[in-house]
């Protein structure tokens, strides 16, 4: 993935053996953190399952050097995540289900904007992490497509490509934080993704009230000013464009009855 700068606005390389990242001279980022299978077992349908020892690598606060000051001023942060290929028992490789911790500077649980870089993803999201999960969506996205998770929704990012790694970037609030307790209390999110004959199927989690899962494809979110250009490049072109990520109150009306 040496053409990241041309494709996605950042001069960096994604590595899969071992999982991680390296940065070009004009890009700064942290040493990637890895999440092992043992660390995420509590969020899986079958905590005793087998799978890759290192499930995914994550680097939060990746940026061009010249953008650092602007990002700090706007309380924005760009993260990059890459998943191992394979399965976690009968589940696909995925993140832990969570909601975003309320940000002190905004008073909101921040939204998050994803862009798929490699592989095929399902961004699963549900309105609530209580017994009634509300509306539930599985947004199926491929390279270059964007998915917006609204404030306060429970969500997880799932690899729909069992035989290849999944990599994506995301705009986040600089005060990002993950809360897992409510999801873990329900033994996961309201729907479990399962791999069956190479395809993803869904099983309802009986710890939630019965409901309906809607499988959809991404849209443009034009009401937020998002275009088809890579999301980091969109920040370069217009640093104010993603202010709604760190200050979601500015678009409060757009979050009401939000449809992914």
TrEMBL record:
Organism annotation: Atlantibacter subterraneus
Protein name: glucose-6-phosphate isomerase
Coiled coil: none
Pfam families found in the cross-reference section: GPI (PF06560)
Domain of life assignment: Bacteria
GO molecular function: isomerase activity
Keywords from the named record: Gluconeogenesis, Glycolysis, Isomerase
Keyword Protease: no
EC number: 5.3.1.9
Reactions catalysed according to its record: alpha-D-glucose 6-phosphate = beta-D-fructose 6-phosphate
């Amino acid at each position: 993935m040496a053409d990241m700068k041309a494709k996605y606005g950042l001069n960096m390389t994604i590595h899969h053996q071992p999982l991680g990242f390296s940065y070009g001279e004009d890009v700064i980022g942290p040493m990637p953190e890895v999440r092992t299978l043992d660390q995420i077992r509590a969020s899986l349908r079958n905590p005793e399952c087998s799978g890759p020892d290192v499930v995914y690598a994550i680097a939060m606060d990746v940026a061009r050097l010249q953008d650092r000051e602007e990002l700090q001023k706007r309380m924005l942060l760009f993260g990059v995540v890459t998943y191992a290929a394979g399965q976690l028992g009968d589940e696909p490789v995925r993140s832990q289900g969570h909601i975003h911790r309320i940000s002190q500077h905004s008073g909101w649980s921040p939204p998050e904007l994803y862009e798929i870089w490699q592989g095929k993803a399902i961004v699963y999201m549900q309105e609530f992490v209580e017994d009634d999960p509300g509306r539930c969506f599985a947004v199926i996205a491929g390279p270059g497509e964007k998915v917006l998770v609204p404030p306060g929704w429970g969500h997880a990012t799932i690899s729909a490509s069992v035989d290849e790694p999944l990599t994506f970037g995301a705009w986040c609030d600089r005060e990002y934080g993950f809360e897992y307790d409510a999801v873990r209390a329900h033994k996961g999110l309201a729907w479990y993704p399962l791999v069956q004959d190479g395809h993803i199927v869904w099983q309802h989690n009986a710890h939630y009230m019965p409901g309906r899962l809607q499988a959809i494809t991404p849209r443009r979110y034009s009401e937020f000013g998002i275009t088809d250009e890579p999301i980091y490049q969109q920040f370069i072109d217009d640093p104010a464009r993603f202010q709604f990520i760190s200050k979601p109150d500015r678009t409060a009306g757009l979050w009401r009855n939000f449809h992914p």
